[in-house]
Amino acid sequence: MKTLPVAFALLLCAAPLAAHERTSVTIADLDRRIAARPLDAGLRMQRGEMHRMAGDRDRARRDYELSLRLDPGLTAVHLCEGRLWMDEGLPARALPALDRYIASHPADPAGRMVRARALALLGRHADAAAEFARVIALEDSAKRLPQPDLYLESARALIAADGGNRPAALELLEDGLRRLSRPVALEVEALAIEQSLGRTDAALARLDRLLGAAARKESFLVRRAEILEQAGRLAEAERSWREASSALDRLPESRRNSPALVAMKQTVAAALKRLPLQAPAAAEGAP
Predict the structure, then answer these.
(1) Span 1-105: which CATH code?
(2) What pTM, to 2 d.p., does this model score?
């Protein structure tokens, strides 16, 4: 029996849907091919993945089961099964399938990534962090740059684990920032950790970088004002709140009226009521 190459199976398992219609055509094509070659386990697995991505989980499961009966050596099916259980929100059911896949493909990061996510959903955060670390190491050994999401999920697992290792999470994010040309998502995550550690100046330095690169600055100005106010630096906070207000006023009216920006404007207005104008000398405690 002809089996599907593992590399193609992994690509298939990870492929996003472009449109339901396109998937339906692909399934119809696979139906015809399977009718001509009913013992081809690889075709059954392909169709199962198409059903999974279209949300038809029962048909997906039937195709996976039949593909394994046709070819028990088609171990890529176990990764597809693991993804299916994860789609259903059942990480405990996903783990055995993923373990079977990893037993056959221990150096493949795709299975370990799904397994790390399953562990995190089960609250096994230390185990998840260790699995995410293995994925990063495997990507490095393959001379591939890990995706930003891998650093984010790994850092969150470190923080959620017993003891919450925020310094280690921050170090990990900083490694991702250096290697991936400072993605905004990683900088924002690192900023939150700096805040939680009470490192006001470090948090502000990250915000300055974000502000320098941002086309839309209002949300970062609000964040800056909040950090300064929490740190008791009220004169600086008020200036940032006013900058945020001005940035919001400069937006086109069509944007200003969106629910998110209306709420932001209300937050800014409430802050400016809270913080009457203070002379810099008074804020610094000068006589």
Answers:
(1) 1.25.40.10
(2) 0.82
Q: Which residue has the higher pLDDT, 3 or 51?
A: 51
pLDDT beyond 50 at 117:
yes
3-state secondary structure of 74: coil
Task: Report the helix count and the strand count for the chain, using DSSP H and E.
Answer: 17, 0
Euclidean distance between CA atoms 274 and 228, whole angstroms: 14
| Residue 222 tokens, joined | 């609000």
Retrieve residue 226's tokens.
């909040």
Query: In terms of C-beta distances under 8 Å and separation of at least 24 residues, what long-range contacts does 113-119 make, across chains too?
Result: 113/150, 114/79, 114/82, 114/83, 114/86, 115/82, 116/153, 116/154, 116/157, 117/86, 117/91, 117/153, 118/82, 118/86, 118/91, 118/92, 118/94, 119/91, 119/95
CATH 1.25.40.10: which residues of the chain? 1-105
Give the integer Cα–Cα distance in Å for 67 and 60: 11
